[in-house]
Amino acid sequence: MSYPPERIRNFALVGHQSAGKTSLAEAMLACAGAIPRMGTTQAGNTVSDYHATEKERQISVHASLLHCDWQGTKYNIIDTPGYLDFISEGLGALRVGDFAMVVVNANSGPEIGTDQVWDYANQFQLPKLIVVNGIDKENVDFDRVLDELREHYGRKVFPMTLPIDPGPGCRRILDVLRSEEVDYATDGSGEYTETPAEGPWKDRVRRLHAELIELVAEADDTLMEEFFDQGDLTEEQLRSGVHAAIQAETFIPVFATSATTDVGVARLMDLISKYGSSPLDRKVVPAIDEEGHRGDIALSDASPACYIWKTISEPHVGELSFCRMYSGSIRPNMELFNPFHGTTEKIGQIFTLQGHERQAIQEIGPGDIGVMAKLKDTHTGNTLTSPDRKVRLPAVAYPKPNIHGTLVALHKGDEDKLAAGLATLHEEDPTFLFGYNAETHELVVSGQGELHLEVLKSRLARRFNVEVDIVEPRVPFRETIQAPAEAKYRHKKQSGGAGQFAEVWLRIRPTEPGGGIEFGHSLTGNNVDRVFVPSVEKGVRAACEAGIHAGYPVTDVAVDFYDGKMHTVDSKDIAFQTAGREAFTEAFKNARPHLLEPILSIEVKVPEQYLGDVMSDLSARRGHIHGIEGETKYRTIKAEVPQMEMYRYATTLRSLTGGVGLHSEAFARYDPLPPNLESRVLKQPEFANA
């Protein structure tokens, strides 16, 4: 069935881990009759979590595309992982959603992951609604959670529904917009009866109704004037203004649900259908043309344009490309242009997905989300357009990795399979990076956390039959000097045929940090032909790249080639390269060489109660704390810490903070390594012959 844009709701289910996103998605599908009964993450039979890793760990790892029909409206539901190790999945979903459904645990309230996805939704300028899920659990205090939500996100947070009897057996919901009590069946069917609010609930809904009217009026100047003139809005005016108020975020609706018992879900879906964002609310989106000029794409354009927000390779199917149409339609056998690679793609089969179940369709229309199979050269973040309109949609800016490891293949001969596997995993997940470090001669992989790397390791084994281990990477130290020195080196070789002769006199001195290698000459007279200056420089730079003190690159040294000798026949380029290298090596060893270590600038976001433990741990890592920011229950510590102290820090941080601490890191500079640590580093086996 094809749906016009106004009858489509594209939204991402996002939130902190264990908030109940997957359970809520199941409940919505069951409520709409899209599945016969709800599965559970514990049983491993949910529609969303169908990958082997998800079933083993009982967590979401991938964003899953789901759909259902509710009152003639198509819901494209994207269930995303709560663990921020897999944030690329959530970012892709938010990129193509028309609003964010932020799910909050009814016991825990807003957590650090909630704040994180909230910030991302703001970056995409998405309206948000909040679902407080699990109101049937022990010790639920909905009013406390509501207060915390308002503390985090402002007074505009407003309850559209709230539980009358929170806790085990909860089945009654107060609907503020309708001023009704909704009594749900206890059999999990989602069926309910409605009665007018009575007693204290009638008084509360009257107060909330008045508050809602004020919030809605703020989004519309006409309604605001009407409100000031009359002191009230009619029911019709109120309902007509709710959609605009949600778009303007003059109020952010909150809904109470118990997904596992299907309480509150139907009313949530009603309100999404009537007042939720559709593609019409973002009917013009920015684009960039071939020359880099800004333009836009309109939903009403006949020419197709879509954004690829996710790619994944499925067994027996091949690569699937998840797309959101921003204009036009696509059909099998069409040819589209990929401006990122300058290539043309012929569209084969197209599908709609229900988790892993595919249904072939004939068209993905404007504003809709679907899947294309077996594209040749199109990956996550790419745009596909008609060949006569070569524009691209802005791609997601993914966060930098915060954990790194050296990948070691456990079996020889797996190099080709490993390379193919790593490339595929990066195409699917842009927050996973890999590359060969020429300094340390290691294959380094980087991700969003230890769980992220562990899952990628298991996927390499399962999908590509490559077993690997991830070990601590070598720290990329630098070498420099602490004092001036000089050396003279004569290179003389006579072994039959043409000989080699060169004599080089060098002075070296330390420079300011960040100065690199400064090479110059102050030659006078005719002892050395100036044609050999580049040869000496080449030899010096070769020595700097190879390292002298411990095998690391040399930096922050100024070199002066001030004199030497040559032979009219035997002096040549290779001779002066060799003499330059050896003279520099000798001078370097006499200039009190020492190691520099990389320093990382880090930001650590933690609940306030863990500040002391986290700062003590940072200090034990030789960290320097520069400040603490933030006034909510989550605070941000800004610090600088040596890289050699940061291996698996993400794991330690989560252990210190009950799993909720987050950190980001970036290279800051190089500082001298303390002498006691340098001696320990130089005693390691790899430096035995240095």
Low-confidence stretches: none
Strand order across the largest sheet = 2-3-1-4-5-11-6
Number of helices: 16
Helix content: 25-40%
Count of DSSP E strands?
Answer: 34
First-last Cα distance: 71 Å
Average the pLDDT over all residues and give the rounded result: 92
Main sheet makeup: 7 strands, mixed
Radius of gyration: 32 Å
> How large a portion of the residues is in β-strands, by DSSP E?
25-35%
Protein name: Elongation factor G
InterPro entries: EF-G-like_DII (IPR053905), EFG_II (IPR041095), EFG_III (IPR009022), EFG_III/V (IPR035647), EFG_IV (IPR047872), EFG_V (IPR035649), EFG_V-like (IPR000640), P-loop_NTPase (IPR027417)
Keywords: Elongation factor, GTP-binding, Nucleotide-binding, Protein biosynthesis
GO molecular function: GTP binding; GTPase activity; translation elongation factor activity
What does this structure look like?
With 690 residues, the protein is of the alpha+beta class. Helix content is 28%, strand content 32%. The protein contains 16 helices and 34 strands. A seven-stranded mixed sheet has the order 2-3-1-4-5-11-6, with helices on both faces. Strands 19-18-20-15-14-21 form a six-stranded antiparallel sheet. It is elongated. The chain starts with 7 loop residues before the first strand and ends in an 8-residue tail after the last helix. InterPro entries: EF-G-like_DII, EFG_II, EFG_III, EFG_III/V, EFG_IV, EFG_V, EFG_V-like, P-loop_NTPase. This is Elongation factor G. It comes from Pelagicoccus enzymogenes. GO terms for molecular function: GTP binding; GTPase activity; translation elongation factor activity.
